[in-house]
Amino acid sequence: MQNPFRPTAGATPPVIVSRHGILSEFEYGLTIRSGAPGLLTIFTGTRGIGKTVMLSAAEEAAQAQGWLVISETATAGFMARIGEAMRRAFEELGEKPSGRRITGVTLAGFGVTTQLAPEEQVGWREAGEKLLNALDTHGTGLAITVDEVHAADRGEIAALAANVQHFIREGLPIALVFAGLPSAVSDLLNEGVATFLRRADRIDLHAASVDETADSYAKLFAQGGHSLEPALARAAAEATGGYPFLIQLVGYSLWQEAEAGPLTADAVGRAIAAARRRNERTVIEAALSTASARDMDFLAAMADDDGTSEAGEIGRRMAASPSLVGKYRARLIDAGLVEPAGYGRVEFAIPGLREYLRSRVRR
Ligand SMILES: Nc1ncnc2c1ncn2[C@@H]1O[C@H](COP(=O)(O)OP(=O)(O)OP(=O)(O)O)[C@@H](O)[C@H]1O
Ligand SMILES: [Mg+2]
Description:
- InterPro entries: P-loop_NTPase.
- This is ATP-binding protein.
- By secondary structure, this protein is an alpha/beta fold.
- The protein has three domains: 24-204, Rossmann fold (3-Layer(aba) Sandwich), CATH 3.40.50; 227-287; 290-360, Orthogonal Bundle (Arc Repressor Mutant, subunit A), CATH 1.10.10.10.
- It contains 14 helices and nine strands.
- It has a six-stranded parallel sheet with strand order 3-2-4-5-1-6, with helices on both faces.
- Strand 2 (68-73), helix 3 (78-93) and strand 3 form a beta-alpha-beta unit.
- Helix 7 (210-223) crosses helix 8 (230-240), helix 8 (230-240) packs across helix 9 and helix 11 (293-302) crosses helix 12 (311-318).
- The longest helix is centred in the last third of the chain and has 24 residues, at 265-288.
- Bound molecules: adenosine-5'-triphosphate (ATP) and magnesium ion.
């Protein structure tokens, strides 16, 4: 058995830990087909928490019910790409039943601009109505997933929401599933660009349970014929803090150790250290790469605290005015590095970031 762990963004893990029942409203909605609350779902959560994996799971659930899936990322022009995918799917529908997933369509009818021209908007809605009516006669529907919505162009999101709302009003079988970073998604919902999306089921993803992580290690290593003592499986799970990306990183390194020799306490310790280093390189350093010197000052000031940090106190440490602190706070929240933690307080959004800053960055 090959190393089953998948420490790569968006890759489906061998065991999806601690996400039982999360899709049940969505799956129930698939059987109702139109207007069910679960058919409008937004996954939010910090980087590496498993949003894209949940989108894939939702896509699989939809396909299993015979639904057509259009899978998109909210980079410029996604509305046009969805429109083109719908048009194609309608043309092909006569030839082949649904239960398919469409990605990476080439653009023909719709331009690549972010704002569809008025005639294209009409075309978009018509393409959608035709496709949805055809799918309806098959007793299925269309699920559109959009990843990274926090980065979406406001005009495109507003147009998508308006059209989907229209389809729902017509009783057509449509599901819309989004994923994005929590605060940016909150802003998107609060700005009123797509009020209708406020009614979506918002599912905030958190760290997995350490117990279930340990169980998943025990199970996978047993399957691979590697013996892993329960206490060591537990130690490895604890080192992940239930953070999904670390679950994969630790599992991956542990598997490599198992291929080289018995899983002793030393071997487990080496695997944990290797996973932490890789987490720093791939998650933390990537997240910090766009931070300015002043952003770094703010983060370093936060790292003095063991728990959440108070904005006024950060201002004193940085010798910065409240308005400046507010500005950097907002920037860092948008970047997914920091999260609001109650009135006037913030906390780190990425596991290991505090420790990283303490060991690497001096104020
Ligand atoms: N429930 C889970 N159990 C175990 N591993 C998981 C789980 N969810 C995700 N993972 C793993 O965690 C990593 C990150 O998952 P994913 O890419 O879905 O996160 P994300 O929230 O979309 O991150 P980003 O914000 O960077 O896009 C992947 O390696 C994936 O295999
Ligand atoms: Mg993702």
